[in-house]
Amino acid sequence: MKEKFIQFMQGRYGGADKLNTHLMYLLFILAVVEIFTGSKPIMVISLLLMIYIYFRIFSKNIYKRYAENQKYVQLIAPITKKVNFFKRKRQDKTHKYYKCPTCKQVVRVPKGRGKIEISCPKCHTKFVKRT
Question: Do 24 and 81 sit in the same domain of this protein?
Fold first, then answer.
């Protein structure tokens, strides 16, 4: 049975990409909301979303599915970049982050140095902050 499934999936997209993953999360959230509210429109949207996910998984047009995923990744890149920055900022216990008042460039400085003069690497503006 396993061999037959592997043979069936050969030449198909498979769908283990960021777009399908996020669509699955959305489907799960919609399903939970639908369970508690009993809303028919949400159920129809969930069903259509499930059909689209399976369409992407079983599609033989690998190039098109890959292009869809790349467009999605580019679309969410600014959000991903901000989320990653805030994660890194929260985990960094040895530095503080400040924005340059002129160009808004983020500058990382060490903690525990008292009041220091910070020079922006981009526009060379100097400003004083407490670390």
Answer: yes
